[in-house]
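$ ./design --mode recover --in tokens.txt
reading tokens...
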């Protein structure tokens, strides 16, 4: 099948913004262990306690994401995906740049972590609005037979952003002394966000909303359907929202254990140096980037549910073999453990945009997918590094962490069983069904 005109441009625009926003979001996650625990918190605490405090501020960004998803989802369903995506990009860029300007704990005391929390909240709010708009811009432009493949590309923007952040940190840590990096070098990585934001913003000006959204918007105006709120989504499509949350739960926890907590584990438990850890992650992110679109193809060929099911089963096992592999101290074995984690994660992550887009009609799709995706992050990804650090501190063992991940993946497995297979569905058919139901409700109210 030939690629529809303009689809590649839409994919590039969605990916450009996603790369930028996740470069900044995960730059924070890496810095939380390597820098912030030393720069923004009291030197009187233990290393794990300082890292724990840094991860608490990390969690603030996740707490803000559902709010961003709700607000951006509401206005994105009402006014269009493109406008909101441009605004979210500028917002997260400004917050990240200002993080690089913050005074340290030694300079202004507790005002330093307080200001960090405020900027982290703004960053999380913006990223909360980013994901739904980026994937829907692609999903709504894609042919139904290839929606899983094309909609997976914005997901690949996440490891691409990670790679960019990792390369920047590798260059800085490789060219600066440890003292210089902690003193001012880390700030350069945050200031560079201004450059990548401008590039991403420019690319996003070159696309338009999908015809299906424009048609749905016109029809909504004609029937005066003015409610696009989270209340209506929960009222009309509760199964879609809660199933999406369940699908997200194990995947989200696994991701932050692999890419965020593993940095702490390797640093504190294994004794790996910063440069080595960054190289492990760079290889893993590169493989993750390559695998995600391939898994999207599998979801188009075999269905969303089988692919996701395999990912959840393998995800439940990862912690039991990955942490012992890290304990080996061997470069190749450690790289393999992290890389395998992200390859397994891709089996759940790549099909998500297609699955979630196919759960909701166009007029409330942004709200529905943002709610299902972002609310889960409060109890999943935001807490995962905190819980894992605490378990490691209390038990001095990786086994409880592996059990924690297995339990999370079990919840996702249940959600997969309750998910309808939607491979190849026409999004217009969801709009027709939704319109018929609304017409029936209006008729019943009049009668």
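writing sequence...
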């Amino acid at each position: 099948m030939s690629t529809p005109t303009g689809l590649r441009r839409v994919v590039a625009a969605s990916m450009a913004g996603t790369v930028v926003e996740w470069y900044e979001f995960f730059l924070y996650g890496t810095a939380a262990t390597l820098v912030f625990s030393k720069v923004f918190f009291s030197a009187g605490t233990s290393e794990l306690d300082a890292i724990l405090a840094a991860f608490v501020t990390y969690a603030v960004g996740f707490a803000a994401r559902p709010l961003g998803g709700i607000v951006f989802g509401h206005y994105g369903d009402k006014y269009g995906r493109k406008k909101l995506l441009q605004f979210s990009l500028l917002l997260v860029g400004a917050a990240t740049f200002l993080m690089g300007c913050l005074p340290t704990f030694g300079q202004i005391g507790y005002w330093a972590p307080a200001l960090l929390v405020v900027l982290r909240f703004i960053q999380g709010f913006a990223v909360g609005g980013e994901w739904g708009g980026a994937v829907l811009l692609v999903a709504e432009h894609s042919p139904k037979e290839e929606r899983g493949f094309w909609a997976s590309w914005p997901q690949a923007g996440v490891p691409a952003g990670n790679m960019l952040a990792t390369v920047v940190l590798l260059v800085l840590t490789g060219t600066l002394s440890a003292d210089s990096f902690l003193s001012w070098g880390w700030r350069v990585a945050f200031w560079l966000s201004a450059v990548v934001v401008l590039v991403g913003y420019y690319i996003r000006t070159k696309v338009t909303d999908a015809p299906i959204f424009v048609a749905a918007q016109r029809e909504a105006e004609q029937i005066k359907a003015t409610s696009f709120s989270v209340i209506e989504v929960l009222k009309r499509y509760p199964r879609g929202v809660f199933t999406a949350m369940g699908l997200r739960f194990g995947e989200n926890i696994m991701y932050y254990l692999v890419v965020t907590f593993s940095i702490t584990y390797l640093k504190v438990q294994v004794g790996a140096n910063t440069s080595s850890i960054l190289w492990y992650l760079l290889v893993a992110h590169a493989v993750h980037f390559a695998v995600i679109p391939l898994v999207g193809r599998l979801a188009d060929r075999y269905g969303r549910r089988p692919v996701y099911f395999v990912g959840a089963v393998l995800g439940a096992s990862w912690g039991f073999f990955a942490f012992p592999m890290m304990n080996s101290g061997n470069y190749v074995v450690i790289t393999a453990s992290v890389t395998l984690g992200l390859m397994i994660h891709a089996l759940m992550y790549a099909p998500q945009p297609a699955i979630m887009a196919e759960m909701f009609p166009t007029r409330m799709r942004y709200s529905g997918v943002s709610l299902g995706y972002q609310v889960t992050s409060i109890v999943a990804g935001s807490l995962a590094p905190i819980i894992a650090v605490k378990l490691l501190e209390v038990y001095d063992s990786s086994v409880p962490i592996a059990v924690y991940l297995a339990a999370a993946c079990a919840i996702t497995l249940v959600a997969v069983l309750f998910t309808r297979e939607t491979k190849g569905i026409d999004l217009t058919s969801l709009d027709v069904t939704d319109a018929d139901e609304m017409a029936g409700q209006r008729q019943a109210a009049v009668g």
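exit 0
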